[in-house]
Design brief:
Blueprint: E1 2-8, H1 12-23, E2 27-34, H2 41-54, E3 62-63, H3 79-85, H4 107-118, E4 122-126, H5 131-139, H6 143-146, E5 149-153, H7 169-173, H8 175-184, E6 188-191, H9 193-196, E7 200-201, H10 203-210, H11 215-233, E8 241-242, H12 244-253, E9 258-262, E10 265-267, E11 274-276, E12 288-294, H13 296-311
The structure holds beta-D-ribofuranose and calcium ion.
Beta-D-ribofuranose binds at residues 11, 13-14, 38, 127-128, 153, 162, 168-170, 244-245.
């Protein structure tokens, strides 16, 4: 069975990526590393610990990662992130202090150690900035070739960005790290806005979690309803809120959910755009695969089956 590491900037959709990763029978979640992004890195780690405890899975270790991008010394949460994910990044839902502590090892060292231990059997799923993974690649140059599969949520190839007309939020947080990872990963699948904006969740589905009558079901419904309301009031999408991060987990274990375009990619240094790398365009070997279409009904059915099971 494959081993999975999630790299989360634990906001609302990251919380669902966590639930999906715990529920899927196709991989074992061996750890979660934390990143800045939707919130400060420490808050993301605490959110992960709290959610793991709520889900009865607090045996999964949580590692502290980058607190700012590879080219800056500081990070402040953007107002738009607070508007979409809440001040605490999980829809302003208050959860009890977790019993589990963060692990002693750093995120980068855990990624390196796991790459050597599991190699081709390891799947890394970043759903935030790519700072931790780029740092692991750079600290131990064997790591990029060892990790069998990196499937990330980020980027936009065929649709506009969500931060600027060109760039998506996770790439925008650290374009240099993202560029390094696209170019060096052995096998990288980009689950970008091209497909995540096609997988939407509404209050009809969150009501099904509520109807389970469990604390877990209520909490996840409250968290996601905050995000649905934000998508509505900020005019991002009135038809529902995007399941960005859990789609990356779904594709990581079952790439057949999407149509993949083989393309050697880069991140444009000027505008953070994820595009084809002209210097590698004619290379017969492709290391990047961009998801350009998704089977939404099939994915949504699986997403609801998994989440109803773990929240029940
Ligand atoms: C991505 O940015 C974050 O706000 C979300 O958690 C998701 O990972 C969407 O652009
Ligand atoms: Ca995220």
């Amino acid at each position: 069975k494959k081993k999975m590491i999630l790299d989360l900037d634990t906001g609302v959709d990251d919380a669902l990526a966590l639930a999906y990763a715990l529920a899927t029978p196709d991989a074992d979640l061996i750890g979660v590393v934390s990143s800045f992004g939707n919130t400060q890195m420490e808050t993301a780690a605490q959110n992960t610990l709290k959610l793991l405890e709520l889900l009865g899975e607090d045996n999964v270790p949580v590692y502290l990662g980058a607190s700012h991008s590879s080219t800056t010394t500081d990070f402040e949460t953007m107002q738009v992130s607070k508007d979409i994910h809440g001040d605490n990044a999980i829809g302003d839902v208050v959860l009890p202090e977790p019993k589990q502590n963060v692990a002693a090892q750093t995120a980068v060292d855990f990624l390196i150690q796991s790459a050597h231990k599991y190699a081709a059997d390891l799947i890394v799923v970043p759903t935030g900035p790519l700072t931790n993974l780029a740092a692991a690649y750079q600290k131990d140059t064997k790591v990029a070739d060892l990790i069998g599969n990196v499937t990330l949520m980020g980027g936009a190839l065929t649709v506009p960005g969500n931060v600027t007309p060109y760039t998506e939020a996770n790439i925008n947080q650290d374009p240099e790290a993202a560029d390094y990872v696209f170019k060096h990963a052995k096998h990288l699948v980009m689950v970008g806005l091209d497909v995540t904006l096609q997988t939407l969740l509404t209050k009809k589905e969150t009501q099904q979690w509520r109807d389970l009558g469990t604390e877990k079901g209520r909490v996840f419904a409250d968290i996601f309803d905050f995000y649905i309301d934000a998508y509505d009031s900020l005019n991002i999408n009135k038809a529902g809120a995007a399941l960005h991060d859990p789609l990356a987990v779904g594709v990581a274990v079952d790439p057949k959910l999407v149509t993949l375009l083989p393309l050697n990619m880069m991140v444009d240094a000027n505008d953070g755009r994820t595009i084809g790398d002209p210097t590698r365009l004619r290379d017969a070997h492709k290391n990047n695969f961009a998801a350009v279409a998704v089977d939404e009904p099939f994915y949504l059915e699986r997403f609801m089956n998994y989440t109803l099971a773990i929240l029940g």
